[in-house]
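Data deposition worksheet. Section B asks for the primary sequence of the deposited chain exactly as it was used as input, without tags or linkers unless they were present during the calculation. Section C holds the resulting structure in token form. Section D is free text for depositor observations; keep each observation to a single sentence. Incomplete worksheets are returned to the depositor.
Section A, Depositor: J.P.
Section B:
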Amino acid sequence: MLETIEKIVSQFGVADVDAKLEERLMEGLLFSFQEQLSEDSNVVLNAFGTIVNCLGVRVKPHIPQICGII
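Section C:
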């Protein structure tokens, strides 16, 4: 599922994503990061990078949470 979200975000961007959906997206992404298995690590890291890059400065409020999990 995370791979699908990555493809959608990379193709369509996040310009139409409101603050509530952005929050849910980041929560799901961070949950997936925490629960990843060794065979899922490439998918999770690629999705993480794509979504964070697409969000750009909008990811700033989530940085403390990201750092806490990493």
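Section D:
The two ends are 21 Å apart (CA to CA).
The mean pLDDT is 88.
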